[in-house]
Prior knowledge:
By secondary structure, the protein is an alpha+beta fold.
Amino acid sequence: MSFPRPRNGRPSGSSGSSRSSSSTDPLIASGLLCQMKDREKYIETFNFPYCNNVGKYEKVVKIGQGTFSEVFKARDKKDRTKLVALKKVLMDNEKQGFPITVLRELKILQLLKHENVVNLIEICCTQASQENKYKPSFYLVFDFCEHDLAGLLSNANVKFSLGEIKHVMQQLLNGLFYIHSNKILHRDLKTANILMTKRGILKLADFGLARAFSVPKTGQQNRYTNRVVTLWYRPPELLLGDRNYGPPVDLWGAGCVMAEMWTRTPIMQGSSEIQQLLLISNLCGSISTDVWPGVEALDLFNKLELPRDLKRKVTDRLIPHVKDTYACDLLDKLLTLDPKQRVDSNTALNHNFFWTKPMPTDLCYMLSQLTQSMFVYKESSHRPGHTRAAHSQQMARAKPSSTIVDVNQDRVF
Ligand SMILES: Nc1ncnc2c1ncn2[C@@H]1O[C@H](COP(=O)(O)OP(=O)(O)OP(=O)(O)O)[C@@H](O)[C@H]1O
Ligand SMILES: [Mg+2]
């Protein structure tokens, strides 16, 4: 009796169940071993197209940790003055290969090139080897920015003048105008995702939840997921279950960020979706068909018992912090309940806030006084008990609970 001989490392006739057992058939077992070794050799020597080896960079320090990635400050070994941010794609939970969310982020980042959007330089990977179990890691390589806005705001020594706040907001709205003109929604606007270079140039970052959008034809509706945007920055239409949303979702986030420039802490820190809606109602007034015609068509509007007859208090509540009346007026327009009436980025950029004295002021001088980079990750890990750790914001983004909690007291600034 003769056994089938392995050819090219592949055992022939191995499809029969009795013959496929490596433990019972030494020749087939050695064939499988050859096959595995061939595979490993192939993977080891495989060069991913358009992917440089990450070894060209030298990691300096870890600066961020998200659910989906780890971020490092790194230096180009050939040009040591060139700093980059390496965003490592976490593939631990991926059974189906490269995460689709990262592919989407990549595609969007390749499209967007603007002064106020973080610049993707390239994609790098590690060489597959026995040490990494033949699973290479992938990195998104960005121009390095010295700070993020969450880190800057959590440091009491960093003081923004009114002119500087205007410049931050002008750049934020410019970035939003650009991405919306390119039919992209960010869908995760928050201070940790807003970067700042040492020269005071703001960059929108983290396009991990971004997507392209289209304006539906009359009579048709988009059906996007509404489980996006970190809870504290999530607009009322998403909380009420809207799936046919658009750029106004990012403008609500811009309003929350703008208020935070003065309050230095997120203005509405709900711990569940319903609590977030209650906080919004307490600040912006009751959600009703009077102020928001058409809201009755949203899934949750009829299912939830939302507070009635609450007055809008945006200006009253914010003026003690903000002081400037033009700023308060713009905030009022950004934090408008009805997304159709909410100000868009172009109109916001024409608001008197940006065209009255003090005019927007360059941040370069103020930032040059800082001797250290400010990142929310570093801040929270170095200061135990820090209330606005990136972690809690991340939790809010990952899985908001739907428990109904009554909010008698606002947890607002
Ligand atoms: N180009 C960059 N320069 C400097 N720091 C950066 C850069 N990109 C990201 N970071 C830092 O790393 C952090 C995490 O990056 P990013 O938000 O892109 O990742 P993420 O995993 O999607 O985060 P999360 O899930 O927490 O939102 C940012 O908040 C910022 O502090
Ligand atoms: Mg992020």
